[in-house]
Amino acid sequence: MRADRLVSLVLLLRQRGQLTADVLAAELEVSTRTVLRDIEALSAAGVPVYAERGRHGGFALLPGFRTELTGLNHDEALALLTAGSGRGEQVFGLSSALASAMRKVVDALPETHRTTASEAAQRILVDPETDLLSRRLITKEVPDATMLEVRRAVLAGHKLRVLYAATGQEPQWRTVDPIGLVTVRDRGYLLARRSGEDRTYRLSRMQAAEELPEPAERPSQVDLDRIWRDRSAQFLADGHLTVHVRVNPARREDLLNAAVAVRAEAPDPDGWLRLELTFQDAWHAEWSLWQLGPNAEALDPQSLRTALHKRATAMAARYESTVGDVT
């Protein structure tokens, strides 16, 4: 770990010039005292780092010091820098590692590509925290220690013990055979098997985890994309309600945000949209469509249309006596 930190320290000074101990400590997520010890270690190893005293002082490398690495062209570097701007690393607890890796990528660029690739990456934003409707996308953080244990078990192929809080249940310890990690819309999941049965665990519901020394019972090769598709299909088939609706395009996103999944979508001749949606259950389907009022219509199942009709009739009856008083 310290070797990686020393490399990161050198790269920070290479790319950004003179920096104070406080700034370096913040970038490396360590104490100022640790930075000072690292500076001494670099000097002892022959790295030409020196200190500027005074109010505007800090640490810097002698001009011209660098380790020249080549091989990445402009588009390859841009692809890496852009991919690194997403938030998947936050879900899996890899933000510090990503920051260190990106510094190494930038330093590895030929001089002719370094500035242009970094500037170009600033023009591309992947998965911002807020969407166009000003809704903040909230990702529940997983404790670093927990995520580290999960990651180690997945990569090492060891059994994993997790303290997991399922919906509506008290947290319980479970021992699983981890298969892989998946992130979808900033939600992280552990794909695993437990007692020979497929299981999918949301990382944000894990309160603690412990990598065990026993090897996990899992295949040596894995196709996570296929496994995720199969488990998603199974999830949608278990106890969910399929609904066909018509909706005003202006309220499409509101309806989609309430649904579990969208299975089909097509335009209607009148400019509305026809959607095949999956809802968690009949109550959620009724509630979601009721919120949209006249901007949506349930086509089937008939039971949903009947429930919405009864709700609308009851609401109309409640206000009918006051309609004549409105001028």
Automatic annotation (TrEMBL):
Protein known as: WYL domain-containing protein
Span of the signal peptide: none
Keyword Nucleus: no
KW DNA-binding (keyword) present: no
Assigned keywords, A-Z: Transcription, Transcription regulation
Classification via Pfam families: HTH_11 (PF08279), WCX (PF25583), WYL (PF13280)
SUPFAM superfamilies attached to this UniProt entry: Winged helix' DNA-binding domain
Entries under InterPro entries matching the protein: CBASS_pafABC_assoc_protein (IPR051534), DeoR_HTH (IPR001034), HTH_11 (IPR013196), PafC-like (IPR028349), WCX_dom (IPR057727), WH-like_DNA-bd_sf (IPR036388), WH_DNA-bd_sf (IPR036390), WYL_dom (IPR026881)
Taxon lineage: Bacteria, Bacillati, Actinomycetota, Actinomycetes, Propionibacteriales
